[in-house]
Amino acid sequence: MSERLILLLGFSLAAAAWPIGASAEEIIPAELGILAMAFSIVLAVQCGVLWLISRFTSGWLVEALTALLIAANAYHFAFLTVEARTAVRWALALAVGVGAGALLRAGVSRASTLLFTLVFTGLSLGQYVYGRVSMSETRPPTAASAPGAITLKSDRNVYFISTESLHSPYAFRRLYGIDDPPHLAYLKAEGFRVLDRAYSADTSTRLTYQRIMEFSKPLTNSRELSQVFKHGNATFKSFQDAGYRIQFIYVSNYMNLNYAIVDHAYPPTGFYICDNLRPSFFYFICRAPVRRLVNRVLFGIDGKVTVKQEIAHLKERIAIAAADARPWLTISHIAFPAHTAAHYRYDDLAQSEKFRQKVRDKMPRIADHYRQIVDTIKKSDPDAVIVTFGDHGMQLTRGMTSAKPNAVFSTEDYIEDRYGVTVGVYPADFCRNRIFEGSSTGVLAKSVIECLNGNDKPTKEDLERSRSVIYMGQPRTLESIVAAP
């Protein structure tokens, strides 16, 4: 019986440690502790059930149950984090279960199991520790961590308002058949210059923001990317050196922002690991009632922060910034509408059309969000500069591994779907030469800073970066992707 319990514990621990090892940036130590507690509860129940059943039945049935539990744990601890079809994830879990069953039948020794557990789990947790240490504070937050910061001479309040997965007008027309989104009509009526075709710097929220904020250099590895919101960046330093205060407002700390480097952040630290995971991850820990309980007991947060609450808080902070004698840089990312889910596949046409209809149905709410935010800014802070943008596309092409065309989507479809985003600027005549039709958000923050200084003449390098996105981990112009996807 001890061999079965050790195999269950060993394989399950390895399955739980594997995704954690690759998620140092996403999982804070407090969340790791919560996962460890959940893991202990799950394994204690399973081992108890296995031991109890072994008292009343034959060996082969206990071996089969052990293999089944290992397969289930592999699925819930590890494979739910894999972006693949459900059938593929189940197949991977089944393979683990079959392998465990074969080892039991072969009479694997406890020593071999313990060696595997020690090595595999040790490597995974070691990778996590290394990632956390590399992100740890080793110098003052505002030290010279952004040598490319620009000397800013302005006292106008600036608002960066981004919206989750918000496509460009052209992408909405091409991919969704939406010719007149109400939020675009509203922005134009309020004096915004809205680009018909613009592109995100990257294809995920955090990566896009990291590249926008740190414009002083290319970010070539995960450590450089993680430092952007840990030690400061060229955008923060440019504004702070000019006497600005900075506030960052979102529904969670998904950006892994070090709150010490800004003057105000919302919401407070909480249990947010489940925001981008399926509810069945770790069996129960990501269920809504459990998440609410954890946040309330451990972090003093009453429920999950909603977009409605975020916008209400943003409006309060707009009034504070407008009344302050010192200027403010306000950054807020509105977590709506949404991109496709992890289980979505580009070649599932029924699923694709269902998602398109959901997007059409969400158009009025997007407009209402903008109406609340922009009306508040214009009434309280009429001289402010507002730049709104989508962080990336909605990923109708999820499942495609490159821009290579197929029977469903062309290369241009892929580009518009992954990168095509709304970009709007207020006042309409602000920064026309740096923020132009067909440009990307790669140097968006730099462009705003330069234009606040009255310099709306982009350099050759600025123009090149404004026409580039990160494709397959490398900066590429959109033209080169089309020419050789």
Number of continuous helical runs: 17
Q: Give the helix proportion (percent range).
A: 40-55%
Q: Give the overall silhouette.
A: elongated
Oligomer: single chain
Tell me what you see in this structure.
- The protein is α/β, with parallel strands linked by helices and 485 residues long.
- It has helices at 2-21, 29-54, 59-77, 86-105, 110-135, 169-176, 182-189, 205-213, 222-227, 234-241, 288-299, 307-323, 349-380, 411-419, 444-452, 460-466, 478-483; strands at 158-163, 193-194, 245-249, 264-266, 328-334, 385-390, 423-426, 468-471, 474-477.
- A 7-stranded mixed sheet has the order 2-7-6-1-5-3-4. It has a two-stranded antiparallel ribbon with strand order 8-9.
- Strand 8 (468-471) and strand 9 (474-477) form a beta hairpin.
- Helix 1 (2-21) packs antiparallel against helix 2 (29-54), helix 1 packs parallel to helix 5 (110-135) and helix 7 (182-189) runs parallel beside helix 13.
- Residues 138-145 have low confidence and may be disordered.
Notable characteristics:
single chain, 50% helix, elongated, 9 strands, two-stranded antiparallel ribbon, alpha/beta
